[in-house]
Amino acid sequence: MMNPDEISWLSKVFRKIDIFSSLSMADVGDLIDHMQKRHYASGVKIVKQGDPGDAFFIIYKGSVSVKKGLMVFKRKVGTLGPAQFFGEMSLLSDEPRIATVTANEETDCFLLLKGHFEHLLKKNPSFAGMMKELSEKRK
Ligand code: CMP
Predict the structure, then answer these.
(1) Is the CB of 46 under 6 A from ligand 1?
(2) Cα 130 to Cα 136: distance, rounded to the nearest angstrom
(3) Which of 30, 81, 119, 122 has the maximal Cβ count within 10 Å?
(4) CA of 89 relative to ligand 1 center, distance in Å
(5) Strand partners, 66
């Protein structure tokens, strides 16, 4: 269960961040009902390149590094922090995770399981379109 501070923080993110602004109040309510808070210790790999996508994440506190490639060819492609999200690409494409995302510090995320994310995409073509566009840019 989320506490009132977490609910109000998430509602604000859904109102203020462009990509979520096409969602209706009912969609936001649904999202808040279905998102689960998870804590990750510093250094934990939250998603691993090559794994099947099972969830979408919004960072609440802390930060993560995004790394692509294997072993010596691994390179950092980005850092994400509060109110930014990850894990959408594999859910949009039905392909394995394109990168490994590691907690840089103690990090809290809100996670939405694949089935709920897919339902949201199906219900909201404009939201799905914006997610796809952003995802293209991250490739
Ligand atoms: P997914 O492929 O499901 O899992 C790894 C995630 O890393 C991916 O979704 C994106 O959310 C994220 N990602 C991949 N490339 C970048 C990038 N260049 N910048 C920021 N995030 C990225």
Answers:
(1) no
(2) 10
(3) 30
(4) 6
(5) 78, 101
Nearest CA, atom 5, ligand 1? 99
How many angstroms does the Cα of residue 137 sit away from the middle of ligand 1? 10
Is-contact 107 61, C-beta < 8 A? Answer: yes
From the CA of 98, how far away is ligand 1's center (Å)? 6
CA distances from 68 to 2, 53, 94, 97, 132 (A): 32, 16, 18, 10, 19
Question: Ligand 1 pocket test: which of 75, 76, 79, 86 has the largest number of ligand atoms within 8 Å of its C-beta?
Answer: 86
Kindly report, residue by residue over 16-62, the tens digit of the pLDDT.
998 998 899 999 999 999 999 999 999 999 999 999 999 999 999 99
The reply to whether the predicted model has a pTM over 0.90 is yes
Contact 64, 46 (CB under 8 A): yes
* Angle between helix 4-16 and 25-34 (nearest 10): 140
